[in-house]
Amino acid sequence: MRRTALTVAALAAVFSAPVFASPIVGLVDTGSAGLGNVDTNYHFAATSGTFIPQGATSPVTYNAGTARGTSSSGVVGCTGGANCYGVAGTYKAWTASAAPASLWLAPTAETGQTYDGQATGSYTWTLDFNLYNFKNAAFTAQWASDNEGYVTLNGQTLTGSTIYDGYPAFQQFTGFSDLTDSGSSALVLGKNQLVFHVFNVGQPVANPTGINVDFLSSNVIPAPVPASALLFVSAMGALAVFGRKRGRNSSVNSVAV
Q: What percent of the chain has pLDDT over 90?
């Protein structure tokens, strides 16, 4: 009976233990694969998309860009600034990374390659992650792109994530975040999908494209175990103790007979 009581106590301790926040698994910076390697965390695709340019009142639809990526992903191209080199040329305008793990991704190892020489090309970079049994979750991040774009989480555009065309677009980071306590969170139970929509404004020369994503913080708090679960553990413990006693009494009666 002592062993049974200890087992019940251990289960009760597990179910009633305090819950602590932990980082959201799957929210990884661009470039985690290391310079020159394919970053499979981010899925790259050339696909048509819509965007409302700065000063416009209605969305414009752009065709899929001319870049095709590497194995449906991108290649970790550079850290930014003078470190951005490509086989097809040198491109040094991209902003330097804000953190050692946050590096620029380009469609291929040729960071400076020109795309979309005739018209603006549309691209997406997609990052999937999962959330299970959570009470609250939140993350903050920043990103830079060449050229303009915006970020969606499960189809919902994240406030403040839009980057407009111009030299500053790839010379500074733009922040975005999501918080379940905000009342307008796009985070869901199960699979979540962050999509970075990028529009490479067309020009015939010196026209590469890429993104840099830097997650500043993230946390998820598991949902507490409901009282019914604790009651179930207690009930199972009581039944186990009762069954053990009953079995022992039956053995004693058999011996007496």
A: 48
Q: Is residue 107 located within the same domain as residue 191?
A: yes
Report how many domains make up the chain: 2
Strand-strand pairing, 89-90 and 85-86: antiparallel
Classify residue 231: in a domain, yes or no. no
Same domain membership, residue 141 and residue 48: yes
Statement to judge: residues 251 and 159 lie in one domain: no
Task: List, for residues 178-188, the tens digit of each pLDDT value.
Answer: 998 777 899 99
Residues of the chain with pLDDT under 70: 1-20, 81-92, 99-100, 166-169, 224-257
